[in-house]
Design goal:
The complex is a heterodimer of chains A (426) and B (350). Chain A is α/β, with parallel strands linked by helices and 426 residues long. Chain A is built from 19 helices and six strands. The chains are: A alpha/beta (426), B mainly alpha (350).
Chain lengths: 426, 350
């Protein structure tokens, strides 16, 4: 050890000639004899890194990890230099057997693996074996586009931009249509962007993997990027898969607007993952949704990334009817004029319509409680609810109007402009 | 909640605030403050969240609590000053900004904030801190914009323009700088450039209310000036009717009518080209614009009528107008119209 002039000289010699394997092995042997197991292992590690089949190094390593020398042969260790005792779980053998020498066959490797399995990761993964259970939930989507009420325009756009090329590989090859790139759904909140994404996954028969800011954001530097990388890796493992990035304006906000460097790194990572820089995104269909596409970094909307956009507007009349029917389905209703209600709820989002149904049910419940007679939800309750609930998309339309008027570069928001003109909001 | 958990929540909250999600950030801060009500960092973040949500009363309350929890933090005083400034309480804002500056005399943000608080009441006093902020942080576009605003208030418009251009050289997307340069262009009568400047400013930040208002004001100002020109034309025609012969009067009236209509066409085309569909929106919805358009219409009709009167045979319309004393009765009316139009066609102060 430190006090041994021979070991000190050998250390200097190894430092001077780090490639000299026999010298290093000799030093490792002496260190083992002196009880400096940790230092010996580090030297053996260097040798094995260069030559994993080196028999002498392997033999010494076995001695080192086995705790190997009989106590009688070990020199009295200095208190400060004593190597750390092996953990209790690594000593299942009875003391009588241990005292007989470094017999590795007696060591219960399976028990040690069971005990340490959670702490020490395996060295290698074979095939599709996974380190741990997946950290993110990938679900099968059972919703189809036919389950989405109304929204004929949106469905048509989805079909043209996304679904038709996916379903017709021959035609796709004939026309040289690339599958690279994703789809950005944008529109006011509560209008069914997430539901549409699920429906697209259902149409494709692909798994659905939804990701929000909370799944990515982490307090430690670099961890958010790592989370994002792991999310894409999970999606690739589960291909074919629709990877749905919800609120992508948060995950991929314009870097010029960001103060923190950590979020800039996250945006850069997202760009790299969308490009499939590390590994190709074959079978991973990226859909993203946002209420504020104008806050999304322009780099994310370049060709090959989220290059196709679909405006998801407040539901049209058939869609409103379908949504109202859905929300009233499980409740005791009588003589509800769905067509009339749908006509009076122009500009309401899906969430607003759900709120109308909820309010109508609440009014009927209160009345039943007050009169002591249980009654059905009637049209008068719906009308009273309509008087209470106001459409919530107003602030969004205000922001959208400013963008459509002043920042509609290259016609990116022409469909929004058309909608605003149609509703006489311009 | 362990200290590590609290730190994690604070980092999350700070990132959420940076991402423009103050409400979500507030939820996270609520958990931290429930465990540590006197956490000054959390209180400062909370004040910023309220400020970002536009809830100034809550922002002031949270900033006050942050200052009480950590009176030696310049950041707390700065946040409080900012909140006061946003509510228009300039005196209180100035006191807090001075305290922040006392605690951190080399922090450019403190100088910037003091200049921002002072410039409303005393631009001369705001100049030294604005200058110092620029010295301390020459790479920050905002300090150049503020310096430009202060020197413009002092009448040094060319220096202001240079400061705004410097800010744009650092951040070409800075909407405020584009807007302020457009204001200078408007004051110099470069209407098309001013309109394009406001438009550029709005392209970089479509939600910017000030540039939208400036755009509408510029359009209204142009129409009012044309309206004033229209009434001046009416006065000119009325005077000419007294002295000029029939042919000359007709030529003058036709020329003025064509000039007024040409001016209106130029305004509409320029505005449409610079501002796009927003021009139509202003013309339809802004009462001042509608009134100015109506005034222009009346002036054009009066001038054109003079031309038409000269064109028709003397025995009908001309005879009727002759009874008015060769437009003599129109003179006071058109003079009043001209005065009103001139008064409303002055450059806006802001």
């Amino acid at each position: 050890m430190d006090g041994s002039p021979l070991i000190d000289s050998l250390r200097k010699a190894v430092d001077a000639a780090p490639q000299d394997v026999p010298l290093r092995l000799h030093l490792a042997g002496l260190l083992l004899d002196a009880g400096a197991t940790a230092e010996a292992i580090s030297h053996l590690g260097v040798v094995l890194a260069a030559d994993p089949a080196c028999a002498a190094a392997l033999e010494l390593m076995q001695r080192a990890v086995g705790g190997a020398r009989p106590a009688a042969q070990q020199p009295a260790p200095q208190p400060t230099q004593q190597p750390a005792p092996p953990p209790a779980v690594a000593q299942p053998a009875p003391p009588a057997q241990r005292s007989s020498g470094p017999d590795l066959e007696d060591f219960d490797w399976d028990a040690a693996a069971r005990d340490l399995g959670d702490i020490v990761p395996p060295m290698f993964l074979d095939g599709d074996e996974m380190l741990t259970e997946p950290a993110y939930d990938v679900e099968a989507s059972t919703v189809r586009l036919s389950d989405v009420g109304g929204m004929a325009q949106v469905k048509k756009r989805l079909e043209a931009a996304f679904l038709a090329p996916m379903r017709n590989p021959e035609l796709r090859r004939l026309y040289g249509k690339s599958l690279k790139g994703g789809l950005l759904l944008y529109g006011p909140p509560g209008c069914g962007k997430t539901f549409l994404a699920r429906a697209v996954a259902g149409e494709l028969g692909a798994a659905f993997f939804s990701v929000t800011l909370a799944d990515v954001l982490d307090m430690y530097i670099g961890q958010s990027e790592r989370n994002l990388s792991e999310i894409f890796a999970t999606a690739r493992r589960n291909a074919p898969c629709v990877l749905f990035l919800d609120e992508v304006d948060a995950l991929g906000q314009k870097r010029s607007q960001l103060r923190s460097n950590s979020m800039r790194g996250t945006v850069n990572q997202l760009l790299a993952e969308l490009d499939g820089v590390g590994s190709p995104n074959d079978g991973v269909f990226v859909l993203a949704a946002t209420n504020a596409p104008w806050d999304v970094d322009v780099a994310l909307r370049r060709p090959g990334r989220l290059d196709r956009t679909v405006l998801v507007l407040p539901p049209d009349q058939p869609a409103r009817e379908a949504i109202l029917r859905h929300h009233l389905k499980g409740r005791p209703v009588a003589k509800i004029d769905l067509a009339a209600t749908a006509k009076r709820t122009e500009g309401f989002s899906g969430a607003d319509l759900a709120h109308v149904c909820e309010t109508a049910a609440e009014l009927a419940l209160l009345d039943s409680a007050a009169t002591g007679t249980v009654r059905m939800i009637e049209m008068r309750d719906v009308e009273a609810a309509l008087a209470e609930v106001r459409p919530s998309v107003g602030p969004w339309l205000e922001s959208a109007r400013n963008v459509a008027l002043f920042a509609n570069e290259a016609g990116a928001y022409d469909d929004l402009l058309d909608y605003l003109k149609k509703r006489k909001l311009l | 909640m362990t200290p590590a958990d609290a730190r994690g929540e604070l980092v999350h909250a700070s990132t959420l605030l940076d991402l423009g999600r103050p409400q979500e950030a507030r939820t996270r801060l609520g958990a931290v403050l429930a465990a540590e009500p006197g956490n000054a960092f959390a209180l400062r973040l909370l004040a910023r969240c309220h400020h970002a949500s536009g809830d100034m009363a809550q922002a002031i309350a949270a900033a006050r609590a942050a200052v009480a929890a950590d009176p030696e933090s310049e950041h707390g005083h700065r946040i409080l000053a900012n909140a006061y400034n946003s509510t228009g309480e300039r005196a209180a804002a100035t006191v807090e900004a001075r305290e922040a500056l006392r605690l951190a005399p080399d922090e450019w943000r403190c100088h910037w904030l003091l200049a921002e608080c002072l410039r409303h009441s005393d631009p001369r006093a705001a100049l030294p801190p604005a200058y110092r902020a620029r010295e301390l942080a020459p790479h920050e576009a905002d300090v150049h914009v503020l310096y430009g605003v202060v020197v413009k208030q002092l009448g040094r418009t060319e220096e202001a323009r240079a400061a705004y251009l410097h800010a744009l050289s650092i951040n070409p997307n800075l909407a405020t700088a584009h807007n302020n340069i457009a204001v200078l262009d408007r004051a110099n009568g470069r209407w098309a450039r001013a309109l394009a400047g406001f438009r550029t400013s709005l392209r970089h930040n479509p939600q910017q209310k000030l540039a939208r208002e400036n755009l509408a004001n510029t359009l209204v100002l142009l129409l009012r000036r044309l309206c004033a020109a229209g009434y001046a034309a009416v006065v000119a025609v009325v005077f000419a009717a007294a002295f000029a012969g029939a042919d000359l009067l007709r030529i003058i009236a036709v020329a003025l009518t064509v000039g007024l209509l040409g001016g209106l066409a130029w305004i509409l085309v320029t505005v449409r080209r610079s501002v796009g569909p927003y021009a139509g929106m202003v013309l339809r919805t802004d009462r001042r614009a509608v009134a100015a358009l109506a005034g222009i219409g009346v002036a054009v009709l009066l001038v054109a009528a003079a031309g038409i009167v000269q064109a028709v045979p003397r025995h009908d319309v001309r005879a009727a107008v002759d009874q008015l004393g060769h437009f003599g009765h129109l003179l006071p009316l058109s003079a009043i119209g001209l005065m009103i139009a001139l008064r409303s066609a002055r450059n806006p102060r802001r």
